[in-house]
């Protein structure tokens, strides 16, 4: 059982972890609520738009690619970061662009009929 | 500089909020374009904030690796997004899913090499565990997506499988877990362990997707979409960034919802799609007892059926995508409307190879949105339908789903095409669909089969209708 003394003794690390897990859990629920009803017409654009958003890993990639090429592990880290950055950027730029292209198609057709 | 950290946190929070609004707007046709723009804005903000943070920490705004990476990625991404044909959309979406997952895995690996686990605010063990999980999920997403893409464009044919495959998958998953545990024990050191995790996960992704057949692709692509989100979320724990955790969780949840919708429309459970090749899904319903013959008709004969038809329903399937006949289909629909028919399109949720595949193709061909009708809404209309034109669909119109509840298709929601007065089916051959169930519809006296390439046959049909 979780008792008060335990909480009082919670370290900074545990507190930070709990905060992150809380954010994760709430975001999961939010995701389910947000997209529980999507018209089938939008399944593809929604998926490709969501996919572009998963390219948020670009944030991590930017930091990783900033490591200096100093030999040893740091170089490996920087090169991996560079590859990550290329993949994530393709994902982000391509994802949002192609979603936009698809949606424009849906929109244009509505206008002229 | 101290002000930059709280400022960056606020920036990430705003970015996450923009993603949430964006996704919300993306799920309604009228606001979807705006939703996509909000998402892109959020991403732009997140990138700017990160660059500012890097600049403030290191004094230089981005090393040359960053500049090259962003330029290269943007160029490749933009070219791919511009060049893709609408018929190639499933492949592209699959590939982008993979890149997202691969990006997350590489970030996690880079952190394992470049950062000190003990320095993580969340603790060394969580850092390594998250990095391991991120690597596993990310690599599975990357290799699985690449295989899905190669299957979609026909490079990998067939669905090779062998009896012990599920045991191998379980074994690899276990191996990945053990390797991650060893990595935690070693305090995040161990190039061999990191390489081992990557290798095991890469193989797992391949053998996960290889046995899964074409018609299950909507489920697979949705699931890979979800995984790319989960990988981003776990990477969020590695780099201790809430923007990644929130966005990853949102995408993970969205992908899971789509996966559920797709499974339901196929009347298959998720476990069946993932772990059972369709042949194993049940032994009944092969119906190979008697040899029946279906009569093939000429386009001119079929065109006569449209003469005076009041209600016409067109049912597109994967065959329309393969033969790229969506434009001819639209022309035919317009010609029929000119002749006084009421034309509608019946869209089955899993028609094609990805969620919403038919909608994208017909939108590209400029078919008005109002003419596309969903399964539940169109089914009552087949009773008063004079002619139903089926273009390359099979399982989604198979009456066996209703007449043979115990068969592989039993219980799957299908279009009630057989209720139409005349059914014209454009199809390459009589071969059974993905489920391996013979389609009784092909042999009915009210059915006219037009055998051949979809585009060629429809062009003939269009010409014949114009000559009526």
Write the SSE topology.
The complex is a heterodimer of chains A (113) and B (468).
Chain A: H1 4-8, H2 12-34, H3 43-54, H4 58-65, H5 73-111
Chain B: H1 4-26, H2 32-58, H3 64-83, H4 89-114, H5 124-152, H6 165-185, H7 191-209, H8 217-238, H9 242-266, H10 270-275, H11 299-306, E1 311-316, H12 318-322, H13 326-338, E2 342-347, H14 357-364, E3 372-374, H15 375-378, E4 387-391, H16 400-403, E5 422-427, E6 447-451, H17 454-466
Parallel strand pairs in B: 1-2, 1-4, 2-3, 4-5, 5-6
Shape assignment of chain B? elongated
Question: How many extended strands of chain B?
Answer: 6
Biggest interface: A-B, 88 and 118 residues
User: Can you give the helix content of chain A as a percent range?
Assistant: over 70%
User: Number of DSSP strands of chain A?
Assistant: 0
Instruction: Specify the number of helices of chain A.
Output: 5
Number of domains of chain A: 2
Distance between the termini of chain B: 79 Å
Low-confidence stretches of chain B: 279-289
Rounded mean pLDDT score of chain B: 86
Assembly type: heterodimer
Tell me roughly what share of residues is in helical segments of chain B.
Answer: 55-70%
What count of helical segments of chain B does DSSP give?
A: 17
What's the alpha carbon Rg of chain A, rounded to whole Å?
21 Å
Structural class of chain A: mainly alpha
Summarize the biggest pleated sheet of chain B: 6 strands, parallel
Principal-axes geometry of chain A comes out as flat
């Amino acid at each position: 059982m979780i008792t008060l003394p335990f909480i009082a003794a919670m370290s900074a690390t545990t507190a930070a972890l709990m905060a992150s897990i809380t954010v994760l859990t709430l975001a999961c629920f939010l995701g389910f609520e947000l997209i529980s009803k999507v018209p089938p017409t939008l399944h593809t654009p929604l998926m490709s738009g969501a996919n572009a958003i998963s390219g948020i890993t670009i944030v991590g990639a930017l930091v990783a690619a900033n490591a200096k090429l100093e030999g040893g592990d740091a170089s490996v880290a920087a090169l991996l970061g560079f590859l990550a950055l290329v993949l994530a950027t393709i994902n982000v730029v391509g994802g949002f662009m192609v979603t936009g292209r698809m949606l424009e198609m849906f929109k244009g057709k509505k206008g002229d009929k | 500089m101290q002000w930059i950290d709280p400022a960056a946190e606020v920036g990430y929070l705003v970015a996450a909020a923009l993603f949430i609004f964006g996704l919300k707007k993306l799920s309604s046709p009228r606001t979807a374009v705006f939703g996509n723009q909000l998402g892109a804005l959020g991403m732009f903000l997140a990138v700017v904030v990160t660059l500012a943070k890097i600049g403030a920490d290191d004094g230089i705004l981005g090393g040359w690796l960053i500049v090259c990476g962003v330029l290269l990625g943007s160029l490749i991404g933009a070219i791919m997004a511009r060049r893709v044909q609408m018929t190639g959309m499933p492949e592209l979406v699959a590939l982008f899913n993979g890149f997202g997952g691969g990006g997350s895995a590489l970030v996690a690996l880079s952190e394992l090499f470049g950062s000190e686990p003990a320095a993580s605010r969340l603790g060394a063990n969580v850092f390594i565990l998250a990095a391991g999980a991120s690597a596993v999920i990310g690599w599975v997403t990357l290799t699985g997506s690449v295989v899905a893409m190669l299957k979609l464009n026909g490079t990998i044919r067939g669905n090779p499988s062998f009896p012990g495959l599920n045991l191998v998958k379980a074994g690899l998953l276990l191996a990945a877990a053990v390797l991650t545990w060893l990595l935690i024990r070693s305090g995040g050191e161990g190039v061999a362990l990191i390489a081992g995790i990557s290798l095991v996960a890469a193989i797992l992704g391949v053998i996960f997707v290889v046995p899964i057949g074409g018609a299950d692709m909507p489920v697979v692509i949705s699931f890979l979409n979800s995984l790319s989100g989960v990988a981003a979320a776990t990477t969020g724990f590695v780099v201790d960034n809430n923007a990644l955790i929130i966005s990853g969780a949102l995408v993970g949840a969205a992908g899971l919802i789509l996966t559920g919708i797709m499974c339901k429309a196929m009347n298959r459970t998720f476990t069946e799609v993932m772990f059972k090749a369709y042949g194993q899904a049940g032994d009944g319903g092969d119906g190979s007892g008697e040899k029946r013959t279906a009569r093939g008709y000429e386009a001119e004969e079929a065109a006569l059926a449209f003469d005076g038809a009041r209600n016409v329903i067109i049912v597109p399937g994967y065959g329309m995508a393969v033969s790229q006949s969506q434009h001819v289909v639209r022309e035919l629909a317009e010609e029929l409307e000119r002749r006084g028919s009421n034309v509608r399109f019946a869209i089955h949720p899993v028609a094609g190879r990805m969620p919403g595949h038919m909608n994208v193709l017909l939108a590209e061909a400029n078919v008005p949105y109002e003419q596309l009708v969903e399964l539940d809404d169109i089914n009552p209309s087949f009773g008063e339908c004079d002619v139903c034109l089926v273009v390359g669909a099979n399982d989604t119109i198979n009456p066996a789903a209703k007449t043979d509840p115990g068969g592989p298709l039993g219980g799957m929601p299908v279009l009630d095409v057989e209720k139409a007065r005349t059914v014209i089916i454009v199809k390459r051959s009589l071969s059974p669909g993905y489920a391996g169930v013979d389609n009784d519809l092909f042999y009915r006296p009210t059915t006219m089969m037009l055998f051949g390439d979809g585009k060629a046959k429809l062009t003939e049909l269009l010409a014949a209708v114009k000559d009526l």
